[in-house]
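Sequence in, structure out. Go.
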Amino acid sequence: MDWDDFHRRAKRVVPQQELKARRCWIGVLDHRKSTQDDFKETDFLWMIGHNKIPINKIQDTYEKRHDLIGVRISYKGCVVDQSDIVKSFLVPEDCVVVFNAVDPLNATVQHQTLDPPSLREELIQAEIPRRHQEIESGHDAKQTANNHLCFAVDIEAYQYFE
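Output:
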């Protein structure tokens, strides 16, 4: 995989919104997409953040947006340590860092000790309380100037829906 090419192509679909000082775009490619695909803005979960955002916060945001658990965040083909921070992945003079999400079933299969049906059942059971909690808590959403629906969380995460 040519990560530099992936990064260049991802930067072409960054949302057209000005960043505040000391902020950067953080993009996570959808777990159903390949880094080799052609991209559109909605193929990524785009977040505006600062360089001290921990990877586990990005992963949690992605999981909530996609209603999943067990997703892993990858950079240059390697799963990222959840305690790491965005600064570790930012290139000097660049305000965009991109990751790709790894499907929880595929990520687990690589190091799996259980049979796939047992694992799948375990994921389904773990998801039931989470969905109930999210339904009760609701989501912050607002309409943008260009008629996209913005889903925002405390690290200024935005996913655009048409």
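Check: DSSP finds four helices and nine strands in the chain. Residues 107-118, 120-125, 128-157 have pLDDT under 50 and may be disordered.
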